[in-house]
Amino acid sequence: MPLRSIVTFLFAILLSGAAQAATILVWGDSLSAGYGLRPKEDWPTLLQTRLAREGFRHTVINASVSGETTAGGRTRLSAALDRHNPDFLILELGANDGLRGLQPALMGENLSAMIQAARSKGAKVLLVGMQLPPNYGPAYTRRFQQTFAEVARAEKVPLVPFLLDGFADKPELFQPDGIHPTAEAQPLIVETVWKGLKALLKG
């Protein structure tokens, strides 16, 4: 093969590799799916903008489903990993387990299984935790919250302790149901997630 053709071929390969942006898969429930919001107001969409501003060419794929539990997410994850082949997984599930009073131990098993499945496909995982209101009882709410930290420690993945950190006690930043954040709260969620994600992206 002539030298000129070899150079052209190698240059084409380099360009092809450069064009392949890394993929971030957001795997969550209604808090990430944009429940009650207009298109492009949800925090995963705003995260895409933040990534570009910070100089990252990563593509965010939001595969979150309203009402999803960790059991449902675990069932669906394998197909999503095969389809999207993500480089990073933001795992935001567990809130619906807590609202339904499901066993934290089972939630932890499901979270661990999803982290392991993602890791087996070569994806780095950011686990995002949740907290429950006090009316669920101190013992249950404490055990629920501790589960996220225990899973993160056991699986050696970074943890964002609380998705709604900094505004959970501000009713004006929640929709009338008192559960789902408003559009005004979405940038705050991005800031919270970014604190855990930026180190993972650079690692």
UniProtKB/TrEMBL annotation:
Keywords: Signal
GO function term, MF aspect, one: phosphatidylcholine lysophospholipase activity
KW Signal (keyword) present: yes
Signal peptide: 1-21
InterPro entries xrefs: Ester_Hydrolysis_Enzymes, SGNH_hydro, SGNH_hydro_sf
SUPFAM superfamilies, alphabetized: SGNH hydrolase
Domain SGNH hydrolase-type esterase: start-end pairs: 28-185
The protein's name: Acyl-CoA thioesterase-1
Native species: Aromatoleum tolulyticum
Lineage: Bacteria, Pseudomonadati, Pseudomonadota, Betaproteobacteria, Rhodocyclales
